[in-house]
Amino acid sequence: MLPAKALFYALLVLLLTSILSGSLIMMAQINRLQFSQFQTRETLIRNANSGINLLRASGETLLNPKHIDLYGNGNDSVVLETTNWGVFKVGRSTAFSNRGNQQRVHTKICLFGHRLEGIQRSALYLTDRNKPLTICGNARIKGTAFLPEAGIKRGFIEGQPYTGEQMIFGAQKQSEKQIIGLGKAMEKILITNIDLEKLPFSMLGDSTHIPFTEKGIQIHDQIITIQNQILKGKVKLSATESVIIAKEATIEHVIIEAPNIIIESGFQGTLQAIASESLTVEPNVILNYPSALLLLPGSENERFVSIDRNAQISGVIIVFSDPLTSNPAHFKLEETGHIIGQVVIAGVAEIRGAITGHLSCNALFLKTEASIYDNHLLDAELSYNELPDVFAGTTLFDSNAPKSIIKWLD
Question: Which residues, 6+ apart, have CB-to-CB distance to 360 below 8 Å?
Fold first, then answer.
């Protein structure tokens, strides 16, 4: 017989061996589980990205969620959604995995825009009203210019002759009598499939951040003034009279709707402002990309957009025409004001500053202390050549190009 001490050591070794073996088996199982979870997560991310790519390639606006079984096996699927958010689209791809006993989900959300194409890949599109464009002083057009059949000529205003070596630093092509695509764009902006919770302005706190994964809110009142509040995400401000955005406000991706909108001097943020009567951007305002300014039709009052000195706007500006009135809307960009992006004015544009990107307008207007001039440019710069290649504009205009991802959203 084995001595008691030897038996004890044998049992101890057996116990330790069992514990070690069990630990190794458990670690292997945990590693397999973690690896499986990692693979599932990687698959979900890949499938969600595939859904975003499907949305990019599709010209369809999904007013209702669309379910797609990616591989036809029932294990990997995505639900795709698009919603209009101002002049852009929000794309949402939710990937599902039914592998194993638990369903897993991963969501990707982004803001879509369209690369400029066709006539908008130009510095200027000036509709043909049988009048030439007259260029004066230090004005410059850099890029293709679509001009009336009457063409372009040098001018002389207030002692300032045109100083350039050539009148257009790019190709010259003939324009049509109207801006193409504005009617359909107007129809699209009226289509919305966003369900927002409506709240009075009195319920707005000091800081509001609504992720695009959640149901958004619409704050409404007669007059709204945003001073020290922080507003970010899926938030819309709607007023029946006016909205004022003060310098101290912090705003990101918010939509603002009112007949009259004022963005006060010194404000910096990202927003989309949609007015029907007046939209005033005061000096030293910085609107980061992707921001937008829109002037809608429907008001019998004088309609205008004014961008003051040293203001910098990156994004999209659209002024829609109003067939019910013979008084066209007026767009004014003051000296040292700078726009980077896409500008479409179905009205009269007075350009004193610089536009890096594209400008379409019905007429160019210039007012000095001495006189008023039709289809004149003085000391303004229009340059498509310097627009960044990655710029994407509005999705309101019909486009055959795939959508571009402007920004990933939370």
Answer: 119, 120, 124, 125, 179, 343, 344, 345
What pLDDT does 37 receive?
A: 58
Matching residue, tokens 């008691």: 4
Strands 338-351 and 124-126: unpaired
Alpha-carbon distances of 38 from 44, 99, 313, rounded to whole Å? 10, 13, 43
Buried b (16+ CB within 10 A) or exposed e, 169-186: bbeeeebeeebbbbeebb
3-state secondary structure of 257: strand
* Contact criterion met (CB below 8 Å) for 382 and 355: yes
Give me 191's structure tokens.
Answer: 């289509």
Burial 68-92 (b: 16+ CB within 10 A, else e): eebeeeeebbbbbbbbbbbbbbbbb
What size, in residues, is the chain?
410
Task: Please answer whether residues 321 and 297 qualify as being in contact, where contact means their C-beta atoms are separated by less than 8 angstroms.
Answer: yes
pLDDT of 207 above 60 = yes
Q: What is the DSSP string of 311-374?
A: -EEEEEEEE---TT-SS--EEEE-TT-EEEEEEEEEEEEEE-SEEEEEEEEEEEEEE-SS-EEE
Q: 10 Å Cβ neighbour count for 49?
A: 15
Task: Give 60's contacts (C-beta < 8 A, 6+ positions apart).
Answer: 82
Q: Are 144 and 192 in contact (CB under 8 A)?
A: no
Strands 216-226 and 196-200: parallel
Statement: residue 31 has pLDDT above 70: no
What lies within 8 Å, CB to CB, of 57 at 6+ separation is 402, 403
Distances in Å between the Cα of 124 and the Cα atoms of 120, 141, 143, 186, 373 are 8, 8, 8, 21, 18
This prediction has a pTM of: 0.89
Cβ neighbors of 213 (< 8 A, separation 6 or more) are: 92, 107, 109, 410
CA distance 329 to 325: 10
Sign of the alpha-carbon torsion through 265, 296, 336, 122: positive
Which structure tokens are listed for 119? 């006539």
Which of 21-25, 287-291, 387-391 has maximum average pLDDT?
A: 287-291
For 77-125, what is each residue's pLDDT tens digit?
889 998 889 999 999 999 887 765 566 888 999 999 999 999 999 999 9
